[in-house]
């Protein structure tokens, strides 16, 4: 006798690849989409999170298509030698950049303030690694 759907015995069997409940066996599933819900039924939030997580981890997702973990949309900024020279000079003077200096550098170097902020964050981490390696 097969146990009812979602009983402890059935769950143990199903996790080992055993029997499915009769209702689940009859329910058509779209390939690669996970659980489907009737069009007029509300979709539980947990199902939406699972569906989004499955989409993000799928091989064709944009974030993985580029081979890195960078978010889609903005390519990596390649700073010119002149930009790097000015950024490094400013970093040597002060490791933490103020708002006015950030605005000035952004205008002079033709970069956004968020790019300047990110560069300083990354440069501080590089400095930290270098000083730790030197010890």
From TrEMBL:
PROSITE patterns: HOMEOBOX_1, HOMEOBOX_2. SUPFAM superfamilies: Homeodomain-like. Residues 48-64 have a biased composition (Basic and acidic residues). Residues 12-25 have a biased composition (Low complexity). Residues 1-79 are annotated as: Disordered. Residues 70-130 form the Homeobox domain. The keyword DNA-binding applies. Keywords: DNA-binding, Homeobox, Nucleus. It is found in: Nucleus. One of its GO terms (molecular function) is DNA binding. GO terms for cellular component: nucleus. Pfam families: Homeodomain. This is Homeobox protein vex1. It comes from Eudyptes chrysocome. The lineage of its organism: Eukaryota, Metazoa, Chordata, Craniata, Vertebrata. The gene is vex1.
């Amino acid at each position: 006798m097969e146990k009812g759907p979602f009983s402890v015995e059935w769950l143990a069997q199903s996790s080992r690849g055993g029997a499915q409940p009769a209702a689940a066996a009859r329910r058509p599933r779209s390939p690669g989409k996970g659980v489907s819900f009737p069009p007029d039924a509300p979709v539980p939030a947990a199902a939406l999170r699972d569906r989004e997580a499955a989409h993000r981890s799928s091989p064709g997702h944009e974030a993985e298509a580029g081979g890195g973990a960078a978010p889609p949309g903005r390519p990596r900024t390649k700073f010119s030698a002149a930009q790097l020279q000015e950024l490094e000079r400013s970093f040597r003077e002060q490791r933490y950049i103020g708002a006015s200096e950030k605005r000035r550098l952004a205008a002079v170097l033709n970069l956004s303030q968020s790019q300047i902020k990110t560069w300083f964050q990354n440069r501080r981490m590089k400095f930290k690694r270098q000083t730790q390696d030197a010890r």
